Amino acid sequence: MNVYLAEFFGTALLLLMGGGVVANVNLKKTNANGADWIVIAIGWGLGVTLGVYAVGQVSGAHLNPAVTLAFAMNGDFPWSQVPGYIIAQILGGVVGGILTWLMYLPHWRVTEDKATKLAVFSTGPALKNYTANFISEMIGTAVLTAGLLFIGSNKFTDGLNPIIVGALIVAIGVSLGGTTGYAINPARDLGPRIAHAILPIFEKGKSNWGYAIVPVLGPMVGGMIGTVLYRLVFKGIFDIWTIVTIIATVLTLILGVIMNKKSKHGEIVKIF
User: Which cell locations does it reside in (predicted)?
Assistant: First the structure.
């Protein structure tokens, strides 16, 4: 299998399982309707585990543009393949969103709340403050990429790595996921959000593109932060990527402040 096809397939599978558990818990008239957050966190973790088992031997199973960028920054992945991987991952996210829609086809009509339908496909903040939301996504993704690099530096029994990676996703979900829904993966949010925008979902409402930059830019910068911290603390490396990451972090936070100021009065929850 081609590595780009593997990333496409693995991400689609991940999004089917991850989006599927959100739909199972939140859409009306499913047998799991009303289950709690831990079910969603476990579903996402097992979805990642399955995706890694499926294509890990072919492409390394990044399944996440932030992870691809992190591995390239750390010298573990060729820069020439980064654009192709990211495109494949986003397209896989779109297909994963479409498959989730098909899986729960009769349940969209009986679910009245538009926000609930959108939440199956993409993330949103529990409390809207763009600066805080960026910070949440950056911290969560920094833990992800640093964690993956930690895992990669240890030796495990053959076949155990995907389970460890899935456990990392569950840990992030239960510990850090409640603020923004822990996208921690631009393809996980952008791909299904595109699917939501193009699918004929019954009374679906808007796709909330005004927020979409947070789960895309936040994880990309967070992935850089996690990589730089790993390299700085464990390898003693301070290089151009450290400087680039600091600049990207500052600019992202400034963007959050600007977006807060441009938002409607009373829409943004104050931090201080």
Answer: Membrane
